[in-house]
Amino acid sequence: MDKNLRHRINVGRATVREHVAYFRKQFGKVESEWKEDKSRVTFADFAISDRICTELARCFPEDDVCSEENDPHAAPKEMKARYAWILDPIDGTNNYAIGMPFCGISLGLLRDGMPIYGFIYEYSRDSLIEGGPGLGLKDGDASLPTMSQRKLDDNSIVGLAFPLKEPYLRQLEPIMDELHIRSMGSGALTLTYVALGFLDGCVDFRSKSWDVAAALALLGAAGGRARFFGNQLFPLKTFDIRQKPGPFYAGTEDFCALCEKLLFPAE
């Protein structure tokens, strides 16, 4: 591994770990506010964002460092550095604020705009998941094999984010009728669970770059596949807190083939 990449991975891991105790202490206790887009935010979001971004900028002043909690009125940031950090200090803020355990810290490392390594701290299992394409996948201290390319069957579980709007509601109806569905309230964790093999796949219409940057790297480490349709989030050339969501599906080859058949029958 290139020493510059190795150094960034080591610092990223340490920086996320340093904030786990604070994250857990504030879980279910911190008061909520509401952003202009009506999404929930807490003081913990701002505190973790400020501390992690400050540390990364100190260690790597040449890198771009961006967070979901950047100033919402700031102009879009052109991503000019070779390496960039994309942070979601609390993914699943609604869950976090009310004391539901599906939430975590998501930190993705990009090179030339593409996710190459990710860190997801998962509150529910108190585990740090990390990895990247060609660099392996770890769940805590355990190194994991690549994703099983199992076939979909009656026991398959997939993640969907609701509400679903037309025409996607109608197009994905066979999935909801025939497979087991989970809606976690955390885009980062849902995609991470696909990488870990807990889910066979997921479809998400609302995620933005900070929601999935880290988890996409984990999926690549696991040998999974993702396809964006509509707004392409990566390579990320401009960081805009007002960016449009990037719809995608991801998972095993069998699940992705089913999504392609349902969403793009003419292809």
Features:
267 residues; alpha+beta; 7-stranded mixed beta sheet; 5-stranded mixed beta sheet; 9 helices; 34% helix; 27% strand
Radius of gyration: 18 Å
Terminal residue distance: 39 Å
The neighbouring-strand order within the major sheet is: 3-5-6-7-8-9-10
H-E order: HHEEHEEEHEEEEEEHHEHEHEEEH
The mean pLDDT is: 95
Largest β-sheet summary:
7 strands, mixed
Structural class based on helices, strands and sheet pairing: alpha+beta
User: What is the 3D form?
Assistant: globular
Query: What proportion of the residues form beta strands (DSSP E)?
Result: 25-35%
How many H/I helical runs?
A: 9
Unreliable spans: none
Percent of residues in helices comes to: 25-40%
Strands, total number: 16
Concise description?
The chain is of the alpha+beta class. 34% of the residues lie in helices and 27% in strands.
Report on the architecture of this protein.
- It is built from nine helices and 16 strands.
- The strands form four sheets. The chain has a seven-stranded mixed sheet with strand order 3-5-6-7-8-9-10, with helices on both faces. Strands 12-11-13-16-14 form a five-stranded mixed sheet, sandwiched between helices.
- It is of the alpha+beta class.
- Helices cover 34% and strands 27% of the residues.
- Helix 1 runs antiparallel to helix 3 and helix 7 runs parallel beside helix 8.
- It is globular and about 50 Å long.
- It starts with a helix and ends with a helix.
